[in-house]
Amino acid sequence: MPAAPSESAAPAHPASPATPPPEAVLPPRAPEAPAPGTRLGSHYEHCFGCGPQHPAGLRIDAVAGTGLDVTAEFTVRPEHQGGPGLAHGGLLTTAMDETLGTLNWLLHVPAVTGRLETDFLSPVPVGSTLHLRAWITGAHGRKIYSAAEARIGGPAGPVAVRARALFIQVKLEHFTKHGRPEDIEKVLDDPDLMQRARTFEVNP
Ligand SMILES: CCCCC/C=C\C/C=C\C/C=C\C/C=C\CCCC(=O)SCCNC(=O)CCNC(=O)[C@H](O)C(C)(C)COP(=O)(O)OP(=O)(O)OC[C@H]1O[C@@H](n2cnc3c(N)ncnc32)[C@H](O)[C@@H]1OP(=O)(O)O
Predict the structure, then answer these.
(1) Is 8 within a domain?
(2) Nearest C-alpha to atom 60 of ligand 1 is from which residue?
(3) Domain residues for 113?
(4) Sheet containing 143-152: which strands, arranged edge to edge?
(5) Who has greater pLDDT, 192 or 128?
(6) pTM for the whole structure
(7) For bias kind Low complexity, which ranges apply (predicted)?
(8) Which residue CA neighbors atom 21 of ligand 1 most closely?
């Protein structure tokens, strides 16, 4: 069996692509951003993360903060199990992704997750309420850097999950071009959703 490489032979760990580089700056909160305290609602009713129509979804409904931040709550249900009685890790990552994604509303640009790193610090039992918080850490060109944490039991409870993300700004055509045509058609027929989507279009 070949010898395992020694610590010293391992290449230096590169900086994470989800960490803002020195040239990144904190972007301004968009003038059109929802006022602090506003419930951001769902961007798509069938979304696994926020859609009220999704039977097993997380139904995350984030609240805009005063700066470049949002908060949300999510209670783990039996359909979210990985280990018996415990939340599935991938599902917790989804909760982080969804909460981080709602930061789009504060910058008023559509963006999709390019990279998402998650640290699981403690097991999360079914029935736990996670208190989520996400904030923007910088932006450079189309790249938006952000971080999030989920605390158990209360907004000041112990941190159970941490995440860092790199979102990439896209045009609305990203969704119409790549989405399954029958789902896109239904969305285009939905006046409420189109009104929300159009607010992005007039302010690219
Ligand atoms: C009409 C219908 C509208 C309906 C929608 C309405 C509203 C939507 C708006 C807001 C929604 C609000 C809330 C959403 C909430 C939650 C949703 C959760 C978010 C998700 O769950 S979303 C799904 C998962 N997500 C994807 O499905 C992305 C798949 N992917 C791609 O679609 C492409 O990959 C893309 C577009 C990411 C980039 O492609 P591209 O061609 O545009 O750009 P390119 O590759 O040049 O990257 C530009 C610069 O980013 C760097 N870069 C890119 N990726 C990187 C990586 N992974 N690591 C490190 N660096 C990376 C490059 O290195 C370059 O850097 P540099 O500029 O320095 O060269």
Answers:
(1) no
(2) 17
(3) 17-170
(4) 63-64, 69-75, 129-140, 143-152, 159-169, 111-120
(5) 128
(6) 0.91
(7) 1-16
(8) 113
